[in-house]
Write a structure and sequence with these properties.
Low-confidence stretches: 537-547, 571-575
Shape: elongated
Number of domains: 2
CATH class of the largest domain: Mainly Alpha
CATH topology of the largest domain: Na+/H+ antiporter like fold
Strand content: under 5%
CATH architecture of the largest domain: Up-down Bundle
Mean pLDDT: 76
Number of strands: 0
């Protein structure tokens, strides 16, 4: 029960940290969480529970490493592989040796093996912590790729080195040859085991999806359980490195994000959201625990008469200095030895390259993995005595983590200031290219039977391209986008008021005409709300609640319509209204709504609320839409064409996903851009399905 209470309290603290971080954006979230943990440990209702080190390794390290390996940009990783491996292996070993021998020499009370374990634990960096440092620093793609690649590989090397050092400290025996052989076997065996599991998992997920057995629940559960089961199987069954197995499997597994349809899109959206929440919760829990353990570890060491407080502070500063200086020198040397991609010549260290070395130095802050490793230090040695200086080692590691996080938090923005570069133009151009290729593919699939439906979908894509093109080169694209959102709001208000007036009518029109007007207005309201959900992507607060409310209102309208039509059929009070009649009347209501917006835009051009050029551009769009709508003949097959158009629309989303994958594989877009584009397609696919 105490463990359950502890988990609830930690989760509450993580949630609170997410709110507090919004008000102090220049302070990194990990620092906020450490402070909250330290405060929470002094509260009377916070339980005191000792976590099993092995449980901590499985619960936190395995899923975090797996997610980091799965999400890393593979192409960028390959480009910066040499530098990343140099930092991950060479620098990690050098840091382990330097910290171990220097700390043991200055503080002989710390056994050499334990000091080496501290050095190994300080090897891994935490790219997740750096990425949340106030969002004030702007790192280049190469710097980000190097830091993430290093964080991925040195997690494995640091953990393996730490485990051997701790084993030597516990048993008092350390054979270099035997340790090297075990290291190689564990490293290679762990990698091969992870690759084998990755192959099986890929085949399993693809087979389940192809057979139609996949559901959102089963898919998410399989994804979540995989890193835990993989780590346990590697350690307890195969007797190889569970960490290396998790990393290798995370790099290889692709979770088959392909597929067409709202169910697949919904599964992918939920999967990304669940992993995002889990990652934040696990990282936050680790830093909350760090803050909770700091007071006790500090108090034990601080109050110990046999330990000098000045020595404690000095050791923290000394170890942090060793780690930082060695890292800067190592990165500088590697940049000096690296050859230019085009000229194949080594380049001199200019002030700009030294600044880049400093960015990658302070960008390698210590965090989750270092702390998790220190928690796994056993309490007892093999002979039954207490592990020497355990609290002090955790205290020193925690101090170094705080020092590196503080330096990263306040120095990175100075070394790599965020120029607030607007990347929306680049993403807009990429989106236009994706839509253009999708239209080309749709054009090639036109037949006599589906011509009208495909042309309707192509028309919607053309409108999206037109809106995006208008943003490129605009002095204030946000202003024009806001005007589009407001114009849709005017349409919505007009139709809602018309719907209210119709429902309040006291018999001036026939029941059939009244029902036709109501259903047409409700159908048009659903279309307008879907358009708002697609366009209004800049709502920073209440987005999810706003969308849920909109969809609940749409569901309520459809339910009332179904009840009304069913009641009419049972009572035979009015003849049933055909879908074609509703479709035709909806176009009439939409024309009136267009006229209302056009009149409103003319009024706004005489005021100062909106840019006159924006109003003029949007007026032209509405005039064109109105002319196109009036020119369409009233055909009896309109409802059937709309149904066919919905099928074509779903097919177009599959084409869009294929175009995005082709552009990513060709190197035209980055992994992050492809992920953002895919997410947009998934959201639109789910919205299209919910509007039926």
């Amino acid at each position: 029960m105490a463990v359950f209470q502890l988990i609830l309290c930690i989760i509450a603290a993580v949630v609170l940290s997410s709110f507090i971080s919004r008000f102090i954006p220049k302070v990194s979230t990990p620092l906020v969480q450490i402070a909250l943990g330290a405060i929470a440990s002094q509260l009377p209702f916070f339980p005191e529970v000792d976590l099993d080190p092995e449980l901590f390794m499985v619960l936190f390290i395995a899923p975090l490493l797996y997610l980091e390996a799965h999400e890393i940009d593979k192409s960028e990783l390959l480009r910066s592989l040499k530098l990343s491996l140099s930092l991950a292996i060479g620098l990690a070993i050098a840091t382990m040796v330097a910290v171990g021998f220097i700390l043991h020499a200055i503080w002989p009370a710390v056994p050499l093996a334990a000091a080496l374990a501290l050095g190994a634990a300080l090897g891994p960096t935490d790219a997740v912590a750096v990425s949340s440092l106030g969002k004030e620093a702007a790192l280049t793609r190469r710097q980000t790729g190097v830091l993430k690649g290093e964080s991925l590989f040195n997690d494995a090397s640091g953990i393996v080195g730490f485990q051997f050092a701790i084993a030597a400290a516990v048993t008092g025996q350390f054979g270099v040859g035997e340790a090297a052989g075990e290291f190689v076997m564990s490293f290679i065996g762990g990698g091969l085991f992870g690759l084998a599991i990755g192959l099986i998992a890929n085949w399993l997920f693809e087979t389940i999806r192809s057979l139609g057995w996949e559901t959102t629940t089963t898919r998410i559960l399989m994804e979540l359980f995989l890193p835990f089961l993989l780590y346990l199987a590697a350690e307890d069954v195969a007797h190889v490195s569970g960490i290396l197995s998790v990393v290798a499997s995370g790099l290889f597994i692709r979770f088959d994000r392909t597929g067409i349809g709202p169910n697949v899109a919904r599964t992918n959206i939920v999967s990304n959201s669940v992993w995002g929440v889990l990652s934040f919760a696990l990282n936050g829990a680790v830093f909350i625990l760090l803050g909770m353990l700091l007071p006790e570890a500090m108090g034990t060491s601080w109050d110990d008469p046999g330990v000098s407080n000045t020595l404690l502070i000095g050791v923290i500063l000394m170890v942090a200095g060793i780690v930082i200086v060695m890292r800067f020198l190592w990165v500088s040397v590697m940049l000096r030895l690296a050859r230019d991609v085009n000229t194949h010549l080594r380049r001199k260290m200019t002030p700009e390259r030294l600044r880049s070395a400093a960015v990658m130095t302070f960008g390698g802050a210590k965090g989750t993995i270092t702390l998790s490793l220190m928690f796994t230090i056993p309490y007892m040695l093999a002979d039954g005595t207490w592990f020497p200086m355990r609290d002090e080692l955790i205290f020193v590691a925690s101090g170094v983590i705080i020092v590196t996080l503080l330096l990263a938090n306040f120095l990175l923005p100075l070394l790599a200031p965020n120029r607030s570069k607007d990347t929306s133009t680049e993403m807009t151009e990429i989106t236009i290219e994706v839509l253009r290729r999708t239209v080309e593919e749709l054009t090639g699939r036109v037949t006599d039977e589906n011509r009208r439906a495909i042309l309707m979908v192509i028309d919607s894509y053309t409108k999206r391209i037109t809106r995006l093109k208008q943003r490129v080169g605009e002095l204030d694209p946000q202003g024009y986008a806001q005007l589009q959102i407001d114009a849709l709001g005017w349409e919505k208000d007009y139709v809602k008021q018309r719907l209210i007036d119709t429902k309040q009518d006291n018999g001036n029109v026939s029941p059939r005409d009244r029902d036709l007007e109501i259903e047409a207005c409700e159908h048009l309201l659903d279309q307008i709300m879907n358009s708002l959900r697609h366009i209004d992507t800049d709502r920073n607060s209440g987005t999810m609640l706003w969308q849920i409310r909109g969809r609940m209102r749409a569901l309520q309208r459809r339910t009332l319509t179904l009840i009304r039509r069913t009641s009419s059929r049972i009572r035979h009070t009015t003849p049933l209204i055909s879908d074609d009649a509703i479709f035709a009347h909806s176009r009439m209501v939409q024309l009136d709504a267009f006229d209302h917006v056009i009149d409103r835009l003319y009024e706004e051009m005489t005021r100062d609320r909106y840019n006159t050029e924006h109003c003029s551009m949007l007026l032209l769009d509405y005039r064109r839409a109105e002319s196109a709508l009036r020119s369409r003949p009233n055909m009896s097959g309109s409802a059937q064409s709309m149904a066919m158009a919905e099928d074509v629309k779903r097919e177009s989303y599959g084409i869009e996903l294929g175009v995005i994958q082709d552009m990513f594989e060709a190197g035209d877009i980055t992994r992050a851009q492809a992920k953002a584009l895919r997410r947009n397609v998934y959201v639109m696919s789910v919205d299209a399905d919910s509007s039926l």
